[in-house]
Description:
single chain, alpha+beta, 11-stranded mixed beta sheet, 3-stranded antiparallel beta sheet, DUF7146, Toprim domain-containing protein, TOPRIM_DnaG/twinkle
Amino acid sequence: MYRPEHSKISKVKALVESSGGWxxxxxxxxxLSHAIEKADKSNASNPPQVPCPRSLQGKTxxxxxxxxxxxxxGYHNDEGAMPDGxxxxxxxxxxxxxxxxxxxxxxxxxxxxVTKHQIQHVQQQQQSVREQQLDPQEVAQRQTxxxxxxxxxxxxxxxxxxxxxxxxxxxxxxxxxxxxxxxxADPLWYGDDTTTQPLKxxxxxxxxxxxxxxxxxxxxxxxxxxxxxxxxxxxxxQLMQSPSYIGGCSIKLDQPIAAGDGALIGLCEGIETALxxxxxxxxxxxxxxxxxxxxxxxxxxxxxxxxxxxxxxxxGAGQRSAATLARRLRTAGIDVQVHVPELDIPEGAKSxxxxxVYVQEGALAFPFGIPPQFAVNTGVxxxxxx
Length: 386
């Protein structure tokens, strides 16, 4: 029988290997069955791209790796490489524990039936055939593109176009104090599945980094280079195609601040929402880009207190992701507050966030704040000082 020191992940991988492999898992999971059908019908060495299996949006968002039947791995143009089936299922389910439970359920498995020998066999295979991410040439190409944009970027705080854009969104701070994690690029080339030629625009950049502070990819907000208005394109906000998996990453606007024997950080989805929370509360913030990445975010060691400013979505996705993240962090012993806007979602809109709260009701509508002497300096007078 299995030993307690073997992780749940190791046991699930052994269960998959002994129960028909990732084909059996994915074939019995509706969101991924289409990708398998396309892969089976294609004669190409790499499976073709399909719409996002989670949102069903886009035409060419996701593909399985060529060795997916062994690794379970795939690649999402917005989320990056997912090196194995557990990461793919985590993306689909929104949490790793949820993904593991779904895999076990699909296989009709009982982890008590997994033997030590089965676990060791899978681990030996993984040592000899490393879990695949992207073809080395594709990794290099994506890395080169990210580094090229990064090398030509300047700080957002020095860009009048960024200042104009943020002011148009209702932010009030001294944008000369914007953090180093935000940049500006001009030109910044834009393209999507509707454009035949790239468009020459400008853009605000956000550096996506992992919990070890390694830069992974860039978030782009496309702007009119003259006025700073948000560009009138289909997808004015995009992540650059990442050379590696971005689950766990975030745009770290600030460093955590001391809180008792630990440290405190605020989390939310969008960059503009994070900037609004900084101005309203003085709280240091990380932006996680989407509800999916918010749920997966990984913290620095030593962070003991977290405040989550959740989006309020008609679908409930923002609220669910915030609640799932809170459960995970609390299980790890972290003190967590979750705040959801009380604003009603306007008819025809998909959501409201804390930027909407800030614009419509001001800083006093925020349920959390820190003493001004510990606050991030945004150039805005906090309510306590008013």
